[in-house]
Design goal:
The structure is a homotetramer of 249-residue chains. Helices cover 47% and strands 23% of the residues of chain A. Chains in contact: A-B, A-C, A-D, B-C, B-D, C-D.
Chain lengths: 249, 249, 249, 249
């Protein structure tokens, strides 16, 4: 059971070119600041925000109430030249929570609908066990970062990420997010070790990039995420592909 | 002729798990803040930073001197718990500038080499005409954002980006960067209209995603970037696939 | 009854000059970022942080638990080159809460004691009614900002603030904070209208600056603060010196 | 000769209460972020911004051109819900530069004049030798921070600052800024050692607080500021009240 929040900047596309195209360096700084802000805001309630596409952030937000969301939304409106709308949904399977939040958001109005301003659609509140998977690339530094040029490294990481995301979403109902470097995080619905092994093999077959994964389980997404990272550290030390860590309640 | 700066966080991977894995929400906020900071810093000298992989930022920095780089680097060291190393190279072809900067960075030490702290390798300084291409997806809002679920939209955008990046890099010596939403920016070595058309067709053939592109040309990367956005606006209004804008000196 | 948190940067003075004096522009940006961060972090739990002396922030934090404090503290440590210690105390009278927090902090070690790292002394948790007073200068724009030079305006505001702070602290057990422009906020222990009138008269007698005040009362500091601002708006419209607003629970 | 920039948020007072009073925690974060941003922006051109009253920032900006100012102003407009106006003036005596910038700003419209939006009045450009004085309190940690309560410490620091500012402004044509903790910085017009000694004695006579000062001289405000800090370090080590450092060109 996971609560997911979809955050969308209201009418952002038109704003970036009104009255004329705004400087890219300013837009990049704005988007990154806004994302950092959402990371801190959801983080202060034990959640985690993923930048996804920057104008469209997905966060896992168990424990963040409707009132908390309203305060975060109002805070953004008070500190940025743009506003955000939010949709919050809970579901056993992370994919369905994302899909439900997306439907709720679309019912409030399109991303370029000037009438949608600070909409908040909330249907969250039920929590339970969370499973988080943290992937990275085996030996990325020696194999990629320090050997080929930086851009080819990015291309390889990119391909593996696209393949991983597609598999996790379509076959395992799991949204996957890039979190920097060669790291990706999936919200997973209680998958088993052999399912992760199958995914790692399929990504390698398709892209020649070998991944590892740590899997964390807990009653809170933050602790599940930390356990997943510990799992990844253990898998590195022990030379195994998949490592589970269950954090105490 | 373009000057490119590669920025790499020193020994970042080990830091994120020392003494134990740090909270993901904090790392996301840190990375996004650091990137926002680099965007503003290079932006204040007329350049633009691209987040690339977050721990590995590439910036186009014509007009930013070695001393400016040193000041930006020292400022990061004074305000963050991590330091950054930088390598700066100029070349006629953007790809070669990135490759040269990468080699220079690697000569300073690996990304996880604890001895590499605030290295600065500078071989820039020569400037000239810059060509920037700004791509987006035709009708992304009606076709993707407001119709399918947010995550499938991300997957489509992701595939198109991976394909576009690969083509631009391998066949046109052009690094390409995701700049949020469905927008990508390439640094291009004076490509012609039919070359862009070939790329758009190839991306569509491979991924079913139809892109448009505005191409800006100027003596400064900032003005070239703004011209590229204006070109994209014009292409949208006029219903054409490729639109060039040459900004006055 | 109010819960107050004292936040102190650990060993900050020595850090600013090690290995040699750091650039002032960097230190100013660091301090302001850190303060903005604390504002958002306590704000996300319904509290408010006051910058006080930058290296020594005081926050009213009813509703922020010991665990929340620990998470905020750890987040700072993960995103800044410095760490902070915190002391949290509750008391009927705001002054005594500040004094108690100060004693608790000092027991953890001095501000330049290298051994004090991320100390957290917590003795909060009891809440109740909160009274907040929001002061500003009558007609500051026409009388000061747009007439005399900016610096003389600052000097006048400064004098009034020093006088107000001294009176509120010594005679009314109320800490007072500058919140920008010509605005000051006091945490007050249920003062009556005539007590505020006495303070306004005394400040005017000493400094020739005439203040107004809105007083908010609520069970939460955030709502009390908003009510205080509404009171100030009302006092401006109605031309009175003191205006109370009690927010519904 | 010093170039000074006055930055004022446009129509800020009315904005903070429209449509109703905004949450103080959000305003504090906004103001601090905006100030941090100005610190970085002017800092990237070798200048330093002082927060003054938050809505009214004064910066020393030798070397920041009119075009740089325009870019900083536009960047603020692109990333914040508010805009800023700027006035830039150069003068031999820092006080007269501030006064001239203030007059220029007022001619553009009042601080609450809704018609003044992103005004930029520029009359800078001439540079020369800069003298900067950096003051702090002798033994502040042992005498104040770790002994009396935090708020009394603030009151003492506050009184000394008000007295110092008044003397420096009225008798020595020098604007003085609080930079955090117990530190103040003055822009001074080539004062001599005995003039500083006179100021320190007068502040002590009026407030019982004993200050020290380091004085830096250079052709750039940044280097002058760093020299002033080195001077302060030397004065601490050598137990003297005033220490001059002249940095090489």
């Amino acid at each position: 059971m996971v609560q997911v929040t979809l955050v969308q900047i209201d009418n952002y596309g038109p704003w970036t070119v009104t009255p004329e195209p705004r400087r890219e360096a300013d837009l990049q700084a704005l988007q990154a600041e806004l994302y950092a802000d959402l990371s801190r805001a959801f983080g202060s309630h034990g959640g985690t925000a993923f930048y996804n596409r920057f104008d469209n952030v997905v966060a896992v937000t168990d424990g963040t109430t409707e009132e908390d969301h309203r305060a975060i939304q109002r805070g953004i409106g008070n500190r940025y030249p743009v506003t955000v709308s939010m949709a919050v949904a809970s579901h056993e399977r992370p994919r369905h929570a994302v899909e439900r939040a997306t439907e709720m958001m679309q019912r409030e109005g399109g991303a370029q609908d000037a009438a949608r301003v600070e909409a908040l659609a909330y249907d969250g509140g039920v929590h339970g066990d969370v499973q988080v998977a943290h992937f990275d690339v085996e030996d990325v530094t020696t194999q990629y970062t320090d050997r080929v040029d930086a851009f080819e490294a990015t291309l390889s990481v990119q391909s593996a990420y696209t393949e991983l995301s597609r598999l996790m979403w379509r076959e395992h109902d799991s949204p996957t997010f890039f979190v920097g470097g060669d790291n990706y995080v999936s919200l997973t619905p209680g998958l088993a070790e052999q399912e992760f092994e199958g995914v790692l093999d399929a990504v390698e077959a398709a892209t020649d990039v070998r991944l590892r994964v740590g899997v964390g389980e807990s009653t809170s997404p933050e602790r599940a995420g930390l356990s997943a990272k510990q799992g990844l550290e253990h898998s590195r030390e022990r030379g195994v592909a998949v490592e589970f860590v269950r954090s105490p309640a």
